[in-house]
Amino acid sequence: MSFLNKIGDYAKDAVQSAKYIGQGLSVTFDHMRRRPITVQYPYEKLIPSERFRGRIHFEFDKCIACEVCVRVCPINLPVVDWEFNKEIKKKELKHYSIDFGVCIFCANCVEYCPTNCLSVTEEYELATYDRHELNYDSVAMGRLPYKVTDDPMVTPIREFAYLPAGQISGHDLDPQIKRAGQRPEDILETLKNNTSESN
Ligand code: SF4
Ligand code: SF4
Predict the structure, then answer these.
(1) 117 labelled as ligand-binding?
(2) Residue 145: what pLDDT?
(3) Phi-psi domain of 156 (left: phi exceeds 0; alpha: psi -120 through 50; beta: other)
(4) Most buried residue, 80, 112, 144, 173, by CB count within 10 Å?
(5) How far is the CA of 129 from the centre of ligand 1 (A)?
(6) Residue 130, domain CATH
(7) Cβ distance 100 to 120 under 8 Å?
(8) Cβ 56 vs Cβ 109: under 8 Å
(9) Considering the domain boundaries, does residue 31 fall inside one?
(10) Backbone CA torsion sign across 112, 118, 122, 125
(11) How many domains does the structure of the chain reveal?
(12) Is the Cβ–Cβ distance between 48 and 124 less than 8 Å?
């Protein structure tokens, strides 16, 4: 009887194992139908989306030292160092800095700055060996933003999310080829057409 029990247990274990192997393989086979998601960084880089909030750019000459950016910042981060000039009866900016090691890139400061001297860039590679180097002063923040498309060493990839089924490279793609998904401009076009049809 115990021999039969052992055979039964063995059969149950075998069925269970086969089920688990089947589950594992189903994930593997499912990936064969999916589009690739690998970017050969740092030789290839995705072009950040239009509303990407990267390193903040600062224009010293436009700043009026109003400190609105400090008040709207969730962590009161920007440091605005100014002096009141009695002769011209105006604040004079002496120093401006933001510590990007602490900043959460919410872009509230950019949104509310009355003179538009702050702007978000698409720069996201800020890694350093020393976190104090992330405290950018007005000179560092005034540096022109880095662009993926301007770097001759990098192949920018734009088509990644819209590759046609079965296509594994975003380069040298025929612009007329049918995409797997709609690009933002196509979605806007469709919406515009739908609105004009309903009117
Ligand atoms: S809100 Fe703009 S103008 Fe005002 S202090 Fe900040 S950066 Fe300067
Ligand atoms: S992006 Fe947000 S967290 Fe960073 S300085 Fe501006 S308001 Fe503060």
Answers:
(1) no
(2) 81
(3) beta
(4) 80
(5) 30
(6) 3.30.70.3270
(7) no
(8) yes
(9) no
(10) negative
(11) 1
(12) yes
Query: The dihedral of CA 155, 158, 161, 166: what is its sign?
Result: negative
User: Quick one: which of 149, 129, 123 has its CA closest to 58?
Assistant: 123
Which residues, in sequence order, are CB contacts of 37 under 8 Å at separation 6+?
Answer: none
| Distance from the alpha carbon of residue 45 to the mean position of ligand 2, in angstroms | 25
> Does the residue 68 lie in any domain?
yes
Asked if the structure places residue 141 within a domain, the reply is yes
pTM, rounded to two decimals? 0.70
pLDDT in tens, 137-166: 999 999 988 788 888 888 887 766 566 666
How many Å apart are CA 165 and CA 178, to the nearest integer?
9
Asked if 120 and 53 touch (Cβ cutoff 8 Å), the reply is yes
Range of the domain at 89: 51-145
Query: Which numbered atom of ligand 1 lies nearest the CA of 115?
Result: 3
* 55 found inside a domain: yes
Q: What tens digit of pLDDT does each residue of 89-107 get?
A: 999 999 999 999 999 999 9
Q: How far is the CA of 57 from the centre of ligand 1 (A)?
A: 12
Considering the chain, what percentage of its residues have pLDDT values greater than 90? 55
Query: Considering just the CA atoms, what is the radius of gyration of the chain in Å?
Result: 28
Burial class (CB in 10 A: 0-12, 13-18, 19+), 89: exposed
